[in-house]
Write a structure and sequence with these properties.
Length: about 250
């Protein structure tokens, strides 16, 4: 499925006008030709990206018993269209998608900040990928808002293994001492950007470090979170349990 998107997308990246006529730009989701004012995804698919239910954000915050961040902003549910977009951004080098994501965040984040940062990748993954997708999103968000982006605000000093298969207790342990901040952030309001939030333990660990460095406010902004289990439990009258959520990009 993803390979199909890649071949379609490679066709649309051809800039020669004649070849563009032969291989029109295609939507990465439904593969219909894009209009001139559409990039990567058509308006129809874009409108089908599921905006997150604010009740879910509230529930996610409440699940974190010792919370170090303040506000939490999330734009989308981790649905199949979002999964296609984030996969292309993370693994297929379609970096322009980060600009679409920054615009989506811009519609959701409301507070004012002194500085923006992004959750750093561990060095091994950074070497493999060559870029940090969250930093790309933060760069575009910074250009749009004029708020300075400091990619070095947090340093990852421990290579933590993948979190997706760990439960909450294991994630907290995994994140302990993983980050450090070398700056004095006394009185600063910081917005920390990440692509996908699952349990929030990584972002909470980052917020702890930033608050320890003096920040008076640390807000989190993420593009999406998986909510399938939450929705099922909502139907049963209870809130979701993030320990059982899992994602695959
Ligand atoms: Zn489409």
């Amino acid at each position: 499925m993803i390979q199909k998107h890649v071949s379609s997308f490679l066709k649309r990246t051809i800039s020669d006008p004649l070849l563009s006529f032969v291989f029109p730009a295609l939507c990465v989701s439904c593969e219909t030709p894009l209009d001139d004012n559409e990039t990567y995804i058509c308006k129809s698919c874009h409108s089908q990206l599921t905006r997150i239910d604010p009740r879910y954000i509230k529930a996610l915050k409440e699940e974190i018993t010792t919370r170090f961040f303040d506000d939490l902003f999330i734009v989308y549910e981790f649905d199949s269209i979002f999964q296609t977009l984030i996969h292309l951004l993370k693994y297929q080098h379609f970096m322009g998608i980060s600009e679409l994501f920054a615009e989506a965040l811009y519609t959701r984040v409301q507070n004012e900040y002194d500085e923006i940062s992004a959750v750093p990748l561990n060095p091994i993954r950074m070497r493999e990928r060559g870029y940090n997708q969250s930093a790309l999103i933060a760069t575009h968000f910074s250009r749009k808002t004029g708020i300075p982006f400091n990619p070095l605000l947090l340093e990852r000093i421990k290579n933590t293994p993948s979190q997706t298969k760990l439960n909450r207790e294991q994630r907290i342990k995994n994140m302990q001492d993983a980050f450090i901040c070398h700056f004095d952030l006394s009185g600063q309001r910081i917005l920390l950007i990440d692509d996908v939030i699952t349990t929030g333990s990584t972002l909470n660990a980052c917020a702890f470090v930033l608050k320890t460095a003096g920040a008076k406010q640390v807000d989190i902004a993420a593009l999406a979170t998986p909510v399938g289990v939450f929705q099922k439990n909502q139907e049963n009258g209870s809130l979701g349990n993030s320990e059982t959520r899992d994602i695959s990009t």
